[in-house]
Design a protein that fits this description.
This protein is mainly α. The protein has one helix at about 1-70. It has one domain (about 1-73). The protein is about 95% helix and about 0% strand.
């Protein structure tokens, strides 16, 4: 009876170790994808921000020129 109990525990441990390895690998893989997406989002943000700032500055300058022209003339 004792041998059966020991074998059952060893079998369970083997299954749990496999499950544990699978979960660790899945988590690691998921985090790798998450970091790649995060880095891609940062890159896109860095690429878009200067363009948006450039457009905004053009609008501000255009508005300032319009206001000055309106006040002066």
């Amino acid at each position: 009876m004792r041998d059966l109990y020991i074998n059952m525990n060893n079998h369970q441990n083997a299954i749990f170790h496999q499950l544990d390895n699978f979960i660790k690998h899945s988590h690691s893989f998921t985090m790798t994808i998450f970091h790649k997406i995060t880095n891609s989002a940062k890159l896109v943000t860095l690429l878009i921000t200067p363009t948006y700032a450039k457009v905004s500055m053009k609008k501000i300058i255009k508005y300032c020129v319009y206001c000055v022209y309106r006040v002066c003339c």
